[in-house]
Amino acid sequence: MRKSLIAGLAIAGVAVGAIAYADNHVSDAQKEAAVKARKAHMTLYAFNLGTLGAMAKEEMPYDAAAATAAADAIAALAQLPQSGYWLPGTDNQSMEKTRALPAIWADGSDVGTKAGDLVKAAMEMQTAAAMDLDSLKAAMGPLGASCGGCHKSFRQPDE
Amino acid sequence: MKRIILILFIVGCVVATIGLVITRPQRVSAETLAGFTPDADRGKLVYAAMGCASCHMAPGSDDQTRLPGGKAFLTDFGTFYAPNISSDPEHGIGDWTDEQIATAVLRGTSPDNQHYFPVFPYGSYVRANPSDVVDLIAHLRTLEPDQTPSRAHDVGFPFNIRASLGGWKLLFTDPDWIVTQDLTEQEERGRLLVEAMGHCGECHTPRNIFGGMKTDEWLAGAAIPGKKGRTPDLRAPSLEWSAADIVAYLKTGLTPEYDSAGGEMVDVIANTSQLPDSDLSAIAAYLLLIGAS
Q: What's the complex ipTM?
C-alpha cells in the first residue's frame, strides 16, 4: 500500500517534470492527438466511477467484486505515466477543443500534487469498495473531491 | 465599455446626490438579535451553508478555520479583495459586536455606516434568518485569530464611492423571495438555502450592466467575471437531473455522467458536502421547481 502510494506520487512528479520542458518540435496533429488521449483517459475515470456511483446512489445493488474492479481500474489509471499527453502548448489559450488551463504548465503549478491526491483517494476507495456499501459511500466524497481539486484550478468551466 | 462606464458614472453621481437621504445604510438592531440563544455547533453548519470560508480563506487554502482574507475578485468595476474576518481584534473582527457583524452580513453595512460592495453577497444574505446568523457569529468567535492585514481594493473612480452603493442597494437588493408560489416545508427550506444562505444566484444568475442580478433569468447560468466559461443553467428543464443526482453532486461533486465539478463550484461543494442529507434534498426539491411551469 505505502510502496505503491509512493510510486504513484513519483509518477505524478515525473509528469510535471516532463510537462516543464518546452518542445518546439511538436506538430499540431500531435497536439490534437494528445488532447484526445487525455480526454479519453478522463473518460475512463468517469466510466469506472459510474459503477461505484450507481452503487452509492443505490441504483444498482452493492457487489464487492464489481466495486473492487472499478476502484482498481481508477487506481491503475491514476498511476499510468501521462506526460505524453500533457504537452506544453496544448492549453486552451493556445488551441481549440480543450479546457486545460495554462496554469497547468505555469511556474509553481501544483498539478503534480493534485494528481497525487487522486492516487491517494483512489487507493482509499480500493479498500472501501471491498469492505461494504457504507464504506464505499463514505469514500465517494473524498474521491470526487480529488477529481474536483484538479478541475478547480486547471480546467475551465464549459462555454 | 466606455459607454457603459459613462452611463454608470452619471447614474452613480445622480443616485449619490439625490439618494443620500433615502439610501442611508441600514442596520440590524440589537432587538432583532435578542431572544436567540447562540449555538456555536449549529453555527458551524450555518457557516458551511453560507459559504463564508470560500471567500475569506487565504487564496489557495482549504483550511476553513482560518479567515485571513486576501482572495481577489476580478469584476468589470475593478479588483476586490476579501478582508480578514478572523477573531483577531486588530486585523479581523474580534472586537465587533454581534449587532455589527449581523449588520455587515444581513445589510451590507459596516460598523461606521459605510456600504459594502456587493461582491460580499449580502444581496442574498439579506433574506437569511437572524437566528441562524446569531449561531454563525458564535461559531466565528471560536475560530483562530489571524494577524494578516486586509488588503485595499483596487477599484478606480467612480466605483470606489461607497455612498453611490446606496442607490445600487435600493435598485438591486430585495429582501423578498424570488420564488413566491406556495411551497412545501421542504421546498421552503430549499429556498432559504439557495436564495439566501448558499447565495447560488450570485454565480448562476446573469447580471445587467450595473452588476444587478436579472431575477427574471433566475439561475439561468451566467458569465464568470474575469474568466472564460460560464456557470451552468440550473433550471430544471435545462439541467435535467433527478433529485438524487443533485444530492450526489452537492455531496461528491460528481455529475450524473461521473464527470466532476470544476471551477469555483468545487469550493461550494466543500461546503455543501458538510450539510445533512435533508438539506441537500431540500435544495434539490427547490431547484426542481425552477423553470418548471
A: 0.85
